[in-house]
Amino acid sequence: MSIFEYNGSALVAMVGKNCFAIASDRRLGVQLQTIATDFQRIHKIHDRLFIGLSGLATDAQTLYQRLMFRHKLYQLREERDMKPETFASLVSALLYEKRFGPYFCQPVIAGLSDDDKPFICTTDSIGAKELAKDFVVAGTAGDSLYGACEAMFKPDMEPEELFETLSQALLASVDRDCLSGWGGHIYIVTPTEVKECTLKGRMD
Amino acid sequence: MGDSQYSFSLTTFSPSGKLVQIEHALTAVGSGQTSLGIKASNGVVIATEKKLPSILVDEASVQKIQSLTPNIGVVYSGMGPDFRVLVRKSRKQAEQYHRLYKEQIPVTQLVRETAAVMQEFTQSGGVRPFGVSLLVAGYDDKGPQLYQVDPSGSYFSWKASAMGKNVSNAKTFLEKRYTDDVELEDAIHTAILTLKEGFEGQISGKNIEIATIGEDRKFKVLTPAEIDDYLAEVE
């Protein structure tokens, strides 16, 4: 089994009309044994910027701590929040620093940039950025997520419809992957509010 | 900095609590050629005298005003070679910021890092403080900005400022003429008049340097021909 499949994960972010949604599964496993069913993969950097980290859980935790550290210092020095595009460049740089001994993570970054335009991107484990206009996926359920999102995505969805679409795509995909599942966590972010929901799916 | 025999700082406190080396550095600045800057509502202008030691010097090869990034420029009063070293370090810091964040460095951040370098040289072994004061002019998301950085590493944001010889006359002149809503074109005229006040000899496009940055956020050093046009307008 590859190191990226040690803990199991499913992450997806999708763009809507002046909003975005980011969702993950809740399983933490050690190969085939399930250890936790409430594992947080998505973290808030600030009110308009979220990052989800799939892959090896220990690297995800360390990477998240390093990114929070950098962002807090940035906030103190520059007296403003980081723009999502800037944050994505920072993540890419941090990952490439470890080019020959990488973090075994695949981050998914989602945020609202200037003019409330949604911004999503993912990078591979050594920092190659992939910007997308519709959706980005990561994790062991990645292939199924690509299929589900491709089939269900429509441009310019309102927050409620985006929530429905993303939930269905996530739950359908994790059912095809034995290493991810046990429900879902979804954040829908608009310029005015952040809604956090827990999804109930097949608990296996 | 320095080998083991010089790993103590040459800048040490006097009994009165002053850092004498920094005072001397400020004296060096005060005997340098006059430079000034004015922040307008829609841009910043910086200018300096360019008095060359002989008419045989090729004035086109002397550039006292330098850009640090496409939207930030700097001028100095004091020792030219020290200025060159600071410009080099600041440009590198700006590029490092861009490499990390893929964003242009904000003016305040670049000023802070340059000031930190200057402060380092007042507290490290075997080195002396820089003999320059800088006027940094830039335009970023916070609008037009003008900062002065001293040899001690302290920096101040100014609406208008002058440095070097004749600084008190120049500042008095600027205080009288400055208004909060002055536009860039008027600011350029005011800058020229301020330089003229203390200028010995005939002022022309060849013996002053002027640079501006406007709402287009592009730092531009004016050509001698453009300066001559402004001089004609001021007459």
TrEMBL record, chain A:
GO cellular component: cytoplasm; nucleus; proteasome core complex, beta-subunit complex
Main location: cytoplasm
InterPro entries: Ntn_hydrolases_N, Proteasome_beta_3, Proteasome_bsu_CS, Proteasome_sua/b, Proteasome_suB-type
Pfam families linked: Proteasome
Protein keywords: Cytoplasm, Nucleus, Proteasome
Compartment(s) of residence: Cytoplasm; Nucleus
GO biological process, one term: proteasome-mediated ubiquitin-dependent protein catabolic process
Family of the protein in this entry: Belongs to the peptidase T1B family.
Functional summary from the UniProt entry: Non-catalytic component of the proteasome, a multicatalytic proteinase complex which is characterized by its ability to cleave peptides with Arg, Phe, Tyr, Leu, and Glu adjacent to the leaving group at neutral or slightly basic pH. The proteasome has an ATP-dependent proteolytic activity. Component of the proteasome, a multicatalytic proteinase complex which is characterized by its ability to cleave peptides with Arg, Phe, Tyr, Leu, and Glu adjacent to the leaving group at neutral or slightly basic pH. The proteasome has an ATP-dependent proteolytic activity.
Subunit note: Component of the proteasome complex. Component of the 20S core complex of the 26S proteasome. The 26S proteasome is composed of a core protease (CP), known as the 20S proteasome, capped at one or both ends by the 19S regulatory particle (RP/PA700). The 20S proteasome core is composed of 28 subunits that are arranged in four stacked rings, resulting in a barrel-shaped structure. The two end rings are each formed by seven alpha subunits, and the two central rings are each formed by seven beta subunits. The catalytic chamber with the active sites is on the inside of the barrel.
Protein name (record): Proteasome subunit beta
Lineage start: Eukaryota, Viridiplantae, Streptophyta, Embryophyta, Tracheophyta
From TrEMBL, chain B:
InterPro entries noted in UniProt: Ntn_hydrolases_N, Proteasome_alpha, Proteasome_alpha-type, Proteasome_asu_N, Proteasome_sua/b
Coiled coil stretches, renumbered: none
Keyword Nucleus belongs to the record: yes
Cellular location(s): Cytoplasm; Nucleus
Keywords on record: Cytoplasm, Nucleus, Proteasome
BP-aspect Gene Ontology terms: ubiquitin-dependent protein catabolic process
Keyword Cytoplasm included in the entry's annotation: yes
CDD domains: proteasome_alpha_type_2
Pfam families: Proteasome (PF00227), Proteasome_A_N (PF10584)
Primary localisation category: cytoplasm
Entry GO CC: cytoplasm; nucleus; proteasome core complex, alpha-subunit complex
Domain Proteasome alpha-type subunits intervals: 6-28
Function (record text): The proteasome is a multicatalytic proteinase complex which is characterized by its ability to cleave peptides with Arg, Phe, Tyr, Leu, and Glu adjacent to the leaving group at neutral or slightly basic pH. The proteasome has an ATP-dependent proteolytic activity.
Protein family per UniProt: Belongs to the peptidase T1A family.
Subunit structure: The 20S proteasome core is composed of 28 subunits that are arranged in four stacked rings, resulting in a barrel-shaped structure. The two end rings are each formed by seven alpha subunits, and the two central rings are each formed by seven beta subunits.
Stated name of the protein: Proteasome subunit alpha type
